[in-house]
Amino acid sequence: MNDSSTHFPTCILCDSLATYDAQQISQCVCPICNTYFIDYMYLARLYSTRGDIYNRHVLSSIARRLSENEMKFEFTEEVYKQFKQNKGKYPGLDIPKTPDERMDSFLLYIKAKSRYPYDPITIDYLLDYAVSFCVDTNEFQNYLFYLSDPRIERIKFNYINPQNHKHIIAHKVNGFGKCFVSITVPGWQYVQKLEKTNIDSQHCFVAMRIDPTNTELENAYNLAIKPAIQEDTQYFCLRIDEKTTAFPDSETNIDDRIFVEINKAKFMVADFTDDRPNVYYEAGYAKGLGLTVIKCCNAKDVDKLHFDTRNKDHIVWESGKLDVFRQRLAYRIESEIGKGTYTGE
Fold first, then answer.
1. 228 and 301, same domain (yes or no)
2. Both 209 and 317 in a single domain?
3. Residue 266 domain-assigned?
4. Model confidence at 5: pLDDT above 50
5. What is the spatial distance between Cα 227 and Cα 321, in angstroms, rounded to a whole number?
6. For residue range 39-87, what is the model confidence (pLDDT) as tens digits?
7. For residues 133 and 100, is the Cβ–Cβ distance under 8 A?
8. What is the DSSP letter of 152?
9. Residue 345: inside a domain, yes or no?
10. pLDDT tens string 302-312
């Protein structure tokens, strides 16, 4: 065990056993929050008063959700200050506050992992309560009982080791609370209604580096990405710099505009050329909403892709073969999304 683990044996956000590395920006690995980063000196200052951290369970859930969506959560003094000023809100995440919202959030989470109704998904009710922004294990388990009640039965809920749940929950032991959860047919239909907002959308949001002086990227967008979306598969294609009328820069923050447009989209095309952090962020946000994200990257930058996304199925393109890129992208959209019905303004 390293020195940081000795000084800080538990997670500052949830109090479960965790490990920190002794770097200036320390990585915390926690069974509940998953992985997040925190300034080591800030961690030292907060540790003795961690019980007073505002909405600690929400921060834990934010870390968990972002980590699962391949996004980095860095818990800094400035992030915490903004979090408090915004009364528990975090950019790009819809924080469920009521019991109904938390249960809906959990159903959406399980459906995203399910292939079909009654597909059993393994969760640990002692460790996975953060996926639903619950305060603790007890709240999470009560929701599981409610959702599996025969009068509602949106899920089936079975303990892998039935004797375990009879024990008093004194320690958060990995594997101790494992159970199978599956969404019933009525539950599946209910979640589809929750998702219906984007079912009829004909919009595709494009996340990529935006630089008018970069001829290579501009050509890739104008000669391959946009025509593959708008002409070949008939969806309205939007890159945020093209949205100039509904949300004037003088009135609306560009981040808000991005989130609004992603929320309206049926799917996203994300180009990771030049390894831009905002593209990872926007793709993770879209994935968290349950949207399909079609990934692509210039061949010269494939080796720069983050290790946890490098094994994903990117469409690799080259500047001299944009016609091939356009065709492959159109095929991918049609195979994963189907053809749209957009015919022009």
1. yes
2. yes
3. yes
4. no
5. 15
6. 888 888 888 777 789 999 999 999 999 998 888 899 989 999 989 988 8
7. no
8. T
9. no
10. 888 875 555 56
The count of structural domains within the chain is 3
**Distance of alpha carbon 217 from the chain centroid:** 26
Residues across the chain: 345
Range of the domain at 117: 99-195
**Residues sharing a CB contact under 8 Å with residue 228, sequence separation 6 or more, in sequence order:** 325, 326, 327, 329, 330, 333
| Bridge partners for 30 per DSSP | 34
Q: What's the rounded Cα separation, in Å, for the pair 113 and 190?
A: 16
> Is residue 270 within 8 Å of residue 207, measured between CB atoms?
yes
Task: Tell which of 162, 195, 228 closes a domain.
Answer: 195
DSSP bridge pairs for 10: 17
Assess whether pLDDT exceeds 50 at residue 138: yes
**For residue 22, what pLDDT is reported?**
76
**Does residue 270 come out as left (phi exceeding 0), alpha (psi in the -120 to 50 range) or beta?**
beta
* pLDDT above 80 (res 27): yes
Take residue 264 and report the two structure tokens written for it: 């309206």
pTM of the prediction? 0.57
Q: What is the pLDDT of residue 174?
A: 47
Alpha helix stretches (DSSP H) within 35-184: 40-47, 56-68, 77-85, 99-113, 137-147
Q: How many CA atoms lie within 13 A of 205 on its CB side?
A: 26
Contact 282, 254 (CB under 8 A): no
Three-state SS at 229 = helix
